[in-house]
Amino acid sequence: MKVITLHQPWASLIALGIKDIEARSWSPPQRLIGETIAIHAAKVVPP
């Protein structure tokens, strides 16, 4: 299964359908466009 890693609160907002666009500096492979992927909520330690 393919997974995208996101920091909170963005991971939850995408999972709930509140945020529907994730902008990255790189384009995803064409074969993943429109496919279902898992969301990994990464733990972020504040500085």
TrEMBL record:
InterPro entries (alphabetical): ASCH_domain, PUA-like_sf
Domain ASCH: residue ranges: 4-40
Protein's name in the database: ASCH domain-containing protein
Pfam families given in the database record: ASCH (PF04266)
Superkingdom classification of source: Bacteria
Residues annotated as signal peptide: none
